[in-house]
């Protein structure tokens, strides 16, 4: 069993790696694979704004390229008053790459957090089962 507070702290620490040139909103993520390894992410912005990538997706994609396919949990930390809430695009990526049971810890600027599964955050999600072979 993993330590949720430790994963949350790693997400908080990862905020310092963000490159939020335009929004100045730092987001950090820490994704725990079933292998026990943690993959960090942070948001990276671009002057062509739509090319910005969120912290959750940088973490997910770096885990995937390392060969990870099974995941336990992700912590996401922002400097917001309310608990940060992953955007729709990241919910779709996380449910498909990490599985419906992924635990998501959403952390506010004070370091407090709440928890939901990704399936609770994106019910009725689209997935490969909809695609014809
Ligand atoms: N952002 C994330 O990295 N994750 C979220 O869950 C919400 C939003 C980033 C994208 C952009 O760089 C900045 O926060 C403002 O939207």
Key features of this structure:
globular, 4 helices, alpha+beta, 5 strands, Cytidine Deaminase, domain 2, five-stranded mixed sheet, 28% helix
Question: How does this structure look, described?
Answer:
The protein starts with a helix and ends in a 12-residue tail after the last helix. It is an alpha+beta fold. The protein has helices spanning 4-14, 55-65, 88-98, 118-121, and strands at residues 27-33, 38-42, 71-78, 103-107, 113-117. It has 4 helices and 5 strands. The mean pLDDT is 98. Tetrahydrodeoxyuridine binds next to helix 2.
> What would CATH call the class?
Alpha Beta
Bound molecules: tetrahydrodeoxyuridine
Provide the number of structural domains.
Answer: 1
Strand content: 15-25%
Distance between the termini: 37 Å
Task: Write down the CATH topology.
Answer: Cytidine Deaminase, domain 2
- Could you give the order of strands across the largest sheet? 2-1-3-4-5
The average pLDDT score comes to 98
């Amino acid at each position: 069993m993993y330590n949720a507070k430790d994963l949350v702290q790693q997400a908080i620490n990862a905020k310092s790696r963000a490159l939020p040139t335009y929004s100045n909103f730092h987001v950090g993520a820490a994704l725990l694979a079933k292998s026990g390894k943690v993959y960090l992410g942070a948001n990276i912005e671009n002057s062509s704004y739509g090319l910005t990538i969120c912290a959750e997706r940088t973490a997910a994609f770096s885990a995937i390229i390392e060969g990870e396919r099974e995941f336990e949990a992700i912590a996401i930390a922002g400097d917001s008053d309310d608990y940060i809430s992953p955007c729709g695009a990241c919910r779709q990526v996380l449910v498909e790459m990490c599985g419906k049971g992924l635990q998501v810890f959403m952390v506010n600027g004070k370091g407090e957090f709440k928890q939901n599964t990704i399936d609770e955050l994106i019910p009725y999600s689209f997935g490969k089962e909809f695609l014809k072979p």
